[in-house]
UniProtKB/TrEMBL annotation:
Protein name, UniProt field: HTH-type transcriptional regulator CysL
Keyword Transcription included in the entry's annotation: yes
PANTHER family the record matches: HTH-TYPE TRANSCRIPTIONAL REGULATOR, HTH-TYPE TRANSCRIPTIONAL REGULATOR CYSL
Keywords noted in UniProt: DNA-binding, Transcription, Transcription regulation
Pfam families tied to this protein: HTH_1, LysR_substrate
One Gene Ontology molecular-function label: DNA-binding transcription factor activity
Gene: cysL_8
InterPro entries with a match to the protein in the record: LysR_HTH_N (IPR000847), LysR_subst-bd (IPR005119), WH-like_DNA-bd_sf (IPR036388), WH_DNA-bd_sf (IPR036390)
Organism, as annotated: bioreactor metagenome
Family the entry assigns: Belongs to the LysR transcriptional regulatory family.
Amino acid sequence: MIIETLEIFRKVAEEKSFSKAAEDLFLSQPAVSSHIRNLENEFGTKLIYRSSKHVDLTPAGEILYEQACRIINQYQEAKEKINQIQSIVSGNLRIGASFTIGEYILPELVSQTARRYPNLNINVTIGNTEEIAQGLRQNRLDVALVEGKITGKEFILEPFMVDEMVLIALPSHPLAKIKGVTAQDLEDQVWILRETGSGTREFSDRFIETLKIPVKHSYGFSSNTGVKAAVLSGLGIALVSKLIIQKEIKAGEIAIIPLEENLPRLSREFLIARGQQTYFTKASEAFLMELSHYSQDTHENGL
């Protein structure tokens, strides 16, 4: 079917690699190359510049990529509407999530959704908040769960959960031994931060700026795992979601630094984000229903 060929072309264009596209689509590289050649023969022109390192679209390829995305989306929309008539939740669901949600909440949600709707194909993309927002803008995602603020009239945003943030350090760190840490106590500390574009980094920057805390030095890491490893090595302190340190707290490897009561509340909202122009499928509706159940259960259990 021509849709399959267009989907392969779109994947090659986005990954800029035949091998990566083949891996993502569970196809052989020769099969992917064959589909691209057939398209080029169909249109009588080169669509892709090939090199040993990566591939780029030709001007004709750029035109086809834009139209292919539109055709694929229209095909999925038609398929979804037909399925709605038949009351079947099926098709593809493209979920995006920022790191904390993607690593500590989404796996359980996807598992629940997959068990309830076995005909649904779920694809997950995890990145920082800005990367996920870009995926929505480019219509590469149907729905996203983010921990940072995203702005723009092109988004529909809805809170779904409150996330508790905590300041952490090694149990032997001087701050961990103070009963109520003040803003002054936090001056001239070494901070472990997430990368720019991360919701956690945005929260940390706002906390430091609000309290006007002088920072002695800071180190940036592009993952929660990196931040935790840096804290465990004694490099400094970090402001993180309580979700990511449950095991380390139970093992006594990391301590939560108790803050003075008059300091700003350490919590933030997790958000559901959708594109204004993205068709709201039955699959998206089913996933958000599972998310609603998860949020309610979490609230009732006091997690």
